[in-house]
């Protein structure tokens, strides 16, 4: 996160650290991407966060990556569901969304606490110019390798037409994504924040409106962050989570 501040305990209780290590290696798990807890057994993340041949864990209730905190819950992943039309080009990622079904018993995976909570799905588009929040452990203006402490920042939803102008992203944008940030630069998501939340307030409730997806570097003028448009995938999310939770968990 560029232009961010340290998150206080419990302020972003749906934030996930998605951690990976090479299969069968004895290396420790390393933070790879963000994610978002939407149900006790379901995490949303970016499609491009799903590498192959990786051993994966999901860490909830964490602020500091290098310390074991009493608020943490560490869960294994039972199933990875990558969007059927996920596609990456040199410029953009399309349909950049995946679901992780967590391992649990009797339909309970994450336990709700003050530090671990689900976030609601949105039920409609929100207005351009609205202020929303992004968070993550990704690169900052001072550290390309990311931060140990979770950071967050406020960004503005940017009109799709505006963001599709030639001097911004032109024709690479589609309806599976939207832009948010500050066209003057400075405040943005960055590498390592991918898959993590962009939440906004809708009817006095925080909703997960975007997932950190891509951008032309970070924090640059006229190159805002691009986010997976969660409202575009509501039916997909519902079909996948309902189909699976009726049989398993
Ligand atoms: C990345 O490389 C990345 N400024 C994520 C977000 C943004 C740029 C790059 C948005 O994962």
UniProtKB/TrEMBL annotation:
Keywords: Disulfide bond, EGF-like domain, Hydrolase, Kringle, Protease, Secreted, Serine protease, Signal. It is found in: Secreted, Extracellular space. Transmembrane segments: none annotated. The keyword Methyltransferase does not apply. GO terms for molecular function: serine-type endopeptidase activity. Residues 1-242 form the Peptidase S1 domain. One of its GO terms (biological process) is proteolysis. GO terms for cellular component: extracellular space. This is trypsin. It comes from Cottoperca gobio. The gene is LOC115019681. The chain holds residues 414 to 662 of 663 of the full protein.
